[in-house]
Structure formats: structure tokens, C-alpha cells
Amino acid sequence: MYPLLKHPGYGGRATLRTAYGILCGRAMRHTSVVQLTGAKPALGSIEPASLLTYETMVPARLLRRYKRFLGDVELRVDAQDEDAAPSTTQAVIHVPNTGPMTGLLDELPSRVALSLSANLKRKYAHSLEWIHLQKEAVWVGVHSARANAMAKELLSTHCLTGLPDYDNITPEVRFGRNGASRVDFLLQHSKSNTQCHVEVKSVTLAATSEAGDRLALFPDTVSTRAQRHVSELMAVARAGGQAALLFLVQRSDCVAFAPCHECDPVYAEGVVAAAAAGVRLLAAAVAFDPGVGCVRYCGQLPVLLQYQLRDGQSLRAPAALSRQKLAGAVKRPRKA
What is the DSSP letter of 30? Predict the structure, then answer.
């Protein structure tokens, strides 16, 4: 028997299995978590729309990540002689992720997909885009800034339900007292003159719920910056404005999203408080297609505010890659 819940998107009662719908054409299982907020999840299709296409993707094997923004990879080098076997060479790459990448570096060396810059002046030509987790058999996107680009595409095509009507999207808008804060996107409607502040978060962490379902979680470590952002959105909502948190899940193996109480209880409780204050919570999942070199939209996920993880799971970052050590390890590489 599946738990029943109230859900505004369905206008009444519905089971969690119904709420989960289908993600990327695969039937989802239920979970014992019963609190659900946000808009009605969008059903994915077998061939979701492409959000991002890479001009050049380079397959490689990630050997290690160090000094916050650097990594060593093994690249394949094709021999000039057709009869000779290909060889490999090592290269240093740019890792465009400020966090510890909890749960993504446990199986090194791992298959990765790199983008190649056409800028010859860059110090590091390759950037880490996606990493393949062998145990979960899933690709996970690690380029944090890509989340905003994909979110903009979703907003531009009006793929997301749960947002107020809008006909204009402005990125990187200052707001708050003396313009001290900045939001990722400001949605506006020219006729009604309504506004909605939208903050985007890139999600890479996942864990298994007590019921055996995969949950996408954010953040993967303590983040005072994320705590500040949710407080600012809450202030907008409490002042009578409209605000939304969009969690862009860069992996396709999860059936729902939840704020990570284990990694950052302050942020998680902030998200719960923000929802109660009227901040809209949305989660959308994407999947990497390595054969085509593109990212496809899978659909929206339910947002769970309370959940239970399966016993024995560790969501803590390795000590060598803690945020404190990463923060002071090295300055960002120039021209990366």
C-alpha cells in the first residue's frame, strides 16, 4: 500500500508512485517518505529534449583530483601508423567544481568526459564535464556552471511547472538591501508586472533511502553560501514577493530530491523553513548521452523535505578533500 499525500499539483490526494511518474522512460518505485512539496512532476519521455550539446568531447580516465581545480587524466593517443596500437598519455585538466565532489571520487581511476577549449591561450585545454560511476552505472555532471546554462534553457522553453507566468528572463540580477545580493535569474511578466527570483543549485550527490530508492541530495558538504542564498529567498517571500529554488540534478538515477540534512543540517532546515514561507521548490533531472555528446532533459522530480537514508551510508567528503582544505589549497588556475 503506497502512502497517500496532499499535493497541490494534483489538486488532491495521490500516491507517491503516481507522483514519481516516469523519469527518462523508466518506471519509478515508491518510498516511505511522505512529505512532498513543489509542482506536479513533469513526465519524462523516451527521447527527452537536448539541453546542451558539446562541440568536442574527449573520453579519458580520471586518475586523481587535487588542489581544488586540478586533475590528472589519462588520454588515449591514436598512433599515426594504422597497424600500431594506440598509446596513452597523461595530462592536467581543469576541474570546474568548488566542492569536495562527495561520492564521485571513490572509484578512481574512473571514466570521464572532457570538453576541449578552442582558446589556445588557456593554460589547461581540457575541463572535466562528466564522470562515470561504475557501481551506480550512471554519468554525473560536475561542471557547476553548466547547471545555470541548462536551467536557462529549461526556463526559456517553459519546461518547468510550478513557476508563475513569465515572458522575460534576466540572469544575474542584484536585489536586496543596497543590491548586496545577486540571484541567478529574475522572471518577469510584462502584463501582470510580477517577478520571481530563481536560484539554481547544481546537484551531484545521491544516496539510497530506507525504502531502497535513490534520492538526489544537496549540498554535499557544509555551505555557508547556500545557507545565505536560501535565507535571502525566504526574505523575498516573507516580504510578499515570489521566489524559487531550482535544484538541477546532473544525474539520471534518482526518483526524488531532498535537502541533505546529513551534510548540512542548517541548510536543510533553511529549505524546510523557506518552503513554509512560500519559496517554491523545484527539482529537474538531466542525463548525459556520451554517444551523441549532449545532455538531455529527463523531467521534474518530487521534492522531499523529510526522509530516512539506509543505514551504513557515509555522506561525508574524504578528509583530504574537505571544503576547508580545498578552499585554501590553491588559487583558481588562470585562464581556465
Answer: P
pLDDT at 305 over 80: yes
Instruction: Quote the pLDDT of residue 19.
Output: 36
- The confidence score (pLDDT) of residue 85 equals 60
Nearest to 141 by CA among 93, 109, 185, 97: 97
Three-class DSSP category at 195: strand
C-alpha cell at 215: 534520492
Please list the alpha-helical segments (H only) found in the chain: 16-20, 144-156, 224-238, 265-277, 323-327
**What is the distance between the alpha carbons of residues 225 and 264, in angstroms, rounded to a whole number?**
12
Q: Cβ neighbours of residue 131 under 8 Å, at least 6 residues apart?
A: 62, 104, 110, 111, 112, 113, 139, 140, 142
Residue with more model confidence, 71 or 46: 71
Provide the pLDDT confidence category of residue 138 given band limits of 50, 70 and 90.
very high
**Beta-strand relationship, 181-188 and 195-203:** antiparallel
Q: How many CA atoms lie within 13 A of 94 on its CB side?
A: 18
Which residues is 128 bridged to in the sheet?
Answer: 114
Q: Answer yes or no: are the C-beta atoms of 219 and 258 closer than 8 Å.
A: no
DSSP string, 60-73: EEEEEEETTTEEEE
pTM for the full model?
Answer: 0.80
Tell me the β-bridge partners of 187: 169, 196
Radius of gyration of the chain (CA): 20
- How many CB atoms are closer than 10 A to CB 96? 17
